[in-house]
Automatic annotation (TrEMBL):
Protein name: ATP synthase epsilon chain
Record localization: Cell membrane
InterPro entries: ATP_F1_dsu/esu_C_sf (IPR036794), ATP_synth_F1_dsu/esu (IPR001469), ATP_synth_F1_dsu/esu_N (IPR020546), ATP_synth_F1_esu_C (IPR020547), ATPsynth_dsu/esu_N (IPR036771)
Keywords: ATP synthesis, Cell membrane, CF(1), Hydrogen ion transport, Ion transport, Membrane, Transport
């Protein structure tokens, strides 16, 4: 019989499973509508995710995962995040993320000079992802 006082959390990307926890007591994510906290026995939810961190509280600890878009689905105390990409805090290469941030900032300047709206939007997403990775890694 399943334990109704905990959540099972899985974060998957096109490359496979990034994170799993079977003893979570709280998951906090940022959806397109705002921040969402999910505890055991929460009503079922499906929501699109922003580029932000996912926080998973379990066993007196808190794990932080950089999640870059996707969606969250919750039902029957099982929470699944399907993300475009995701990295656990300890797996983030800060130097690589910082280089990506600098490249995106330079590219954004060029795109704005060219007034290329599509390129501006694409580059803003890349910049947001890099900043998110840095933020999560440095917590």
């Amino acid at each position: 019989m399943a334990d109704n006082s905990v959540l099972t959390v899985s974060i998957v990307t096109p490359d496979g499973k990034v994170y799993e926890c079977e003893t979570a007591t709280l998951v906090v994510v940022r959806t397109m509508s705002g921040q969402l906290g999910i505890m055991p026995n929460h009503i079922p939810v499906i929501a699109s995710l922003e580029v932000d961190e996912a926080k998973v509280k379990h066993d007196g600890n808190e794990d932080e995962i950089a999640v870059n878009g996707g969606f969250v689905e919750f039902s029957d105390n099982n929470l699944t995040i399907i993300a475009d990409s995701a990295e656990k805090q300890g797996d983030i290469d800060v130097d690589r993320a910082t280089n990506a941030q600098h490249r995106a900032e330079e590219h954004l300047k060029e795109a704005r000079q060219k007034h290329d709206d599509q390129d501006i939007l694409r580059t803003q997403v890349a910049l947001k992802r890099a900043i998110n990775r840095i933020h999560v890694a440095k917590r």
